[in-house]
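User: Batch of two.

Assistant: Item 1 of 2:
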Amino acid sequence: MSDLRELYQEVILDHSRKPRNFRVLQHARCASGHNPLCGDRVSIFLDMEGGVIREVSFQGNGCAISTASASMMTEALKGKTVEEAQRLFGLFHELVTTGADAHEAEDALGKLAVFEGVREFPVRVKCATLPWHTFRAAVEGVAGEPVRTE
C-alpha cells in the first residue's frame, strides 16, 4: 500500500472516530438522509445568512466513510456561499464517481480529495455522497422524507 493511500485512510479514520461539527444547530434548516444499503443515517443542520453558510453541522450514525464525509464536508462548507458549496458538491461527486479531472478537483477540494479511492468501491460512493445530497436538500429547504441514496 502506498504511503499516500495510508495517509488518506488515516484522515478518513480520524474524522470517523472524532467527527467535527457533530451536533444539532438550534433554529437551523435541517434535512435527513438515509442509505438503506449500508444503514447510514444523517441529518444536516444549516445556518445561512445572505447566501453564505455561517454554520453547518450533522448528526447521525453510519459507516466510517459516511461519517468522515459528513465531518469533512462541514469543515469545507463553513463560510462558503451556496454557489461555492454547490460547485464543491459537483467536484466531489465527480471525483468519487468518475475520477475525471481528479487533479483539477484536488486543488479545489483540498482534504476532501482523500475520497478519490472510494470510486473503486461503487457501494461506498453512496456512503460518501449521502451527506452532500442531504446538504443540498437542506439548502433547498426540503424537509419530510429522507434523502435516499439507493
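Item 2 of 2:
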Amino acid sequence: MAFVISAACIDVKDKSCIEVCPVDCIYGDADDRMCYIHPGDCIDCGVCESACPVQAIFPAEELPGEAVRFAELNALWFRDKDAARGAVKAIKPDR
C-alpha cells in the first residue's frame, strides 16, 4: 500500500505534505501543477494525509471513484514527468 495524491492538489500544491513526510517520498517540480508520492518509497505512515489542507491524499486502496486513476498518475511521474504533466492537463486544463 502507498498513499496517493489526487485531483484536489492540482493548482493548489500547498506542499504541507512534503514538509511532514519522514521519508521524503513526495515530490513536485516547479513545472508541476500538483505533487506526487513515490509508491515504492512511501512507508504508509499517513502523516501526509492529515497535513493536506485540501484532502487530496488517500491510501491507494481507499481512493474514491474517479481518483483511482491517480495511483497510476503518481507512479507515472517517476517514469515520465512529461507524460504525467500531460495527463494532469487532460484532467484539468490550464487556467
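The chain has a mean pLDDT of 96.
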